[in-house]
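Thread: Modeling a multi-component assembly for a lab meeting

Hi all, long-time lurker, first post. My supervisor asked me to bring a structural picture of a complex we are working on to next week's group meeting, and I have zero experience with this. I have the sequence lines for every component (898 residues in total). Could someone generate the structure of the whole assembly? Inputs are pasted exactly as I received them:
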Amino acid sequence: MTQPAWLAHYPSEVPHELPPTSFEILPDLIRAAVETYGKKVAFTQVLPNGMNGSLSYEQVDKYSDHFAVYLREQLGLEAGDRVAVQMPNCLSYPIVAFGIFKAGLVLVNTNPLYTQSEMVHQFSDSGAKALVVIDMFADRLPEVLSKTSIEHVVTVRISQFFPSAVAGVIRGTQKFWSKTLPKITVQHTPFMDALSVGAKSYSEAKLAGYVSGVTRSSVAALQYTGGTTGVSKGAMLSHGNLVLNTLQLISMCGDYMRPGKEIVVTALPLYHIFAFTINLLGFWHLGAKNLLVPSPRPPSNLKRVFENYKVTWVTGVNTLFNALLNERWFTDSPPKHLRASAAGGMALHESVSERWRKLTGTPIVEGYGLTESSPVLTFNPLGGGGRDGTIGIPVPSTLVKCVSEDGSEVAVGEPGELLAKGPQIMQGYWNRPEDSAHAVVDGWLKTGDIATVDADGFFTIVDRKKDMILVSGFNVYPNEVEEQIAALEGIQEVGVIGVPSDKTGERVLAFVVTGSNPPSEADVIAHCRESLAAYKIPSAVEFVSELPKSPIGKILRKDLRALWLAQQNNASPNQLKG
Amino acid sequence: MLNFFLQDPAVVSEQDVVTPFEQTLLLGLVFVIMFGLGAGLTPKDFLHALKRPKGLIVGWFTQYGLMPLLAFSLASIFLFQLPIEYAAPVAVGALLMGSVPGGTTSNLFTYFAKGNLALSVIMTINTTIWALLMTPLALFIFGGLMFSDNPEWQIPLTNIVVTIAVMLVPVILGMTIRRFSANAGAILELLGGFFGLFFIAFLMATWVPRNWGLLTSTPWQVYVVAIGLGLFGMAMSFGVARLFRIGGVDARTIALETGILNGPLAIAIVLLTFSGNPAIGLILIVPAMYSLFIVIISTLVTLRFRKSNLAEEQKIPNLL
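Re: Modeling a multi-component assembly
Sure thing. I ran the full set together rather than chain by chain. Output:
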C-alpha cells in the first residue's frame, strides 16, 4: 500500500507513527508527570471575580492516591466497578478522576445539568455503584438514587482546596446570597472526609494491587454519547485508548506545546471528552498549568482568567471563540503570551478563525473526533500548514478514509462516510454488542459523518449522515443550506432539517433566529436561490426565538425535528377546522 | 453680617441630621467602599477605557456639566421660594451634592442592572480624580452665580480638595493589594460592596425614624431638589448619552453612574469643611435626603434597566 498522502503534510518534528511508549495505563502517565513536575502548580481554578485556588502536581497525586484507597477500602468497590462523577470544572475533578483510574475503577462522566431522567438513565445503564457529585446539584438525588444501583455518594464543594478565608467567603455567598446550597437529604460523605479516611489506610502496595490486573485494553471510562437515535450509549474507552490518544494529539502539536511551560484555559467542561483528553490528560502530561473555569457563561466570566494569568493556550468550540471575539475587554487587550488555540466539537467558522488569528497573531486550528475515538482523529497541523474549513489530517498512527454505501473508497473530492482506524477507537458500547458491531467493523469506526478528502489528504466534513435529506432522490446536506442562509444579513442562527413530504419524499425546512433587521421568508428563499440548486431550497422558513443546542453548543437537528412534529400535532385540529 | 441661625427658631443642628456615631460610620463607609473599588481595578481597566474613551468623556460631561447645572437650576427655582436664611445653607448643600463625583454604590447598582461594570467603575474613578479640580470649579462657578449677593456663602474650596485627595488613598491601596493577590482583591471588593450596602441600609433604618420630625417639617421644595437631582439626573444623562450615539447598555450605565452621586462623600465634605459653622445642619439636609431617596430611585431604575440590559446581553449557548 502506498503511503497516505497526508504524511507529507506533517510538520517536520511530527512522527508518522506514534513511537512506542512505556505508559501502559493511565496511572503510569499520571505518575510520570508528577515525577517531572512535582511542586509545580498543575491546576488553578478561577472564579469570575478572580478568586482562585491551586493544586500542585504532587498534591493532586497524593489526594488521588487517598481517594483511590477510600473507594476500594472504605466503599469496598472492586476492579471494574463504575463510579459516576458529576461536577463542573473544579479542583476536585482531577483528583476524583485520577483516583478512580488509580483504583482500577471505571469513570462515568456525567453532565451536572442533566435532568433527573437523564441521570437515572446514565446511572442505571452504567450500573454505577458510587457517585461523586457537586453539592450544589445534590438536591435531586432522592428521586434519582432509588432508581439506580448507586450505594455511595461523595459530595464536593466548588470552593474545595481554596485558601480557607476565600473558601469561607465563597461558602457564605453560596449559602446566604445566591442560595445555591440546597439541603442534601441523602446520606453522603464530604470529599475531605473521604480523603482523610483514605489517607489512614494508604499504602503503596495497596495501590499497586488495585491496578495489577488492569491492562491497556481495560475500560477506563464510560463516556456517554447521545448520538442521533436518542438513546444515550456508553462508549467504552480503555486505558490504552486514552493514553495513546493523549500522546497522539500532543505529538501532532509538535513544538507548539512546550513541556512545563504552557498555561492553558480550560473553559469547556472536563466531563466532555474534548476537554477531558486534551486539557486534563494532555496538558497534565505536558506539565502545564491548567486554568479551570467552572462556567464560561457569560463570557465575561473569563475576564479575570485572561487578566491574571499569562495564557499560552486556549482550547474551545467555535461558540466560545466567537463569544470572546465579541467581548470588548478581550479584543482591547488580547492575550500577549498566547501561542496557539485548538477548536473542536463543532465546525470552526472561517470568519471566526480569521478574526482570531488577526487579533491574537497566533494560529488556531480545527481538529475532529468523536466520543467513540477518545476523541481526536484528525487535526490541522500548526505552523502554517493548516487549512481553514477542513478538519485537517489524521494524527499519527491513525488511518482515515471516506467510503460509499458499498464500502469502497470514494474518489478524491467525492463525499462518503468517514471511517477511522487507530489505537484510540473505543472498545464498543457498554452492554450493547449489537450497536458496537454496527459501529466498529474490522477495527474501522463508522463515524456517521459524510466527508470529502482532497489530494493532499485533508478531510472536510460535509454533514452528518443521519441529517442528510433525500429530496426526490437527491442528497441535500443541511450544512450547505445552513451556511448559505447564515450569510444573509439579519440571521443569527439557523438549523436545517428534512421533514416528510408526499410529493418529494422529504422536503427541506429551515429554522432561523433573527437579529435586528430580520429578513422575511421570501428574502431567505430568494437568497438561497442565488447559489443553491432548486431541490436544496427550503420549502418553508420557520422563525423561532432560539434553537435547541447540545452542551457544547451544537445545534440539535433531532430536537428540531421533534419540535416540528409536535407543532404539526398541535396544529392539526386547527387545520381541520380551517 | 446676618446670622440667620440665631434668629431662626427652627434651627437644625448637625447632630440631629448626622450623629457623631453616624459621622464616624460614614467616614468608615467611604473608606471601605473606596477601598473595595480600588481592589476591583487593574491598570488594564484604565487602558481599556482610554482606548475607547467616548463613554468616559460623555460620562464626564454629564457628571460635571449636567449635574451641577441641574442642582443649580433646581435650587434656584425651588429653594429660593423659601426664606433666604433657610434657603441659602440648604442650597449650599444642594450645590455641593450636585458637584461631587459618582459614588461607588452606582457600581453595585450597575452590577445588579447587568450594565457595563467596567465603564461604571472607570467612570467613578475618573470623576473622583477629576473631582480635585471639577468639584471646586463647579462650586466656584455656580456658587458665585447663586451667592453673588451673599459672599459669606462662598464655599471653602481648599478643604474640599484635601478631602477628595484623602479619599483617593484607599483606592490606590486597594489596587496595590489586588496587584499582589487576586484572592485578597476579590474578597475586599466583595466586602466593600457588602459593607457599603449594609451601612446604607443601617443608616437609613436608624436615620429615618430619628429624623421623622425633620422629614415632616421639611418643605416640599427641598424634596423636589433632593429627589429630582437623582431622578432627572439619570433621565437627562441617558438622553445625552443616546444623543452622542452611545449604545443602550453603556447609556444606561452612564445614566446610573451620573445620577448616583457619592452621597457619603458629600456628607463627609460638609462635616470636614463646615465643622463649627452653625448652619451645618441645614447644609446637610439635601445630601442626607438625597442619599436616602437615591437608594429607592436607583432600585426602581435598576429593575427597569436590568430588563433592557438582559435583552441585549451576549447569549452563548449552554457551554457547561
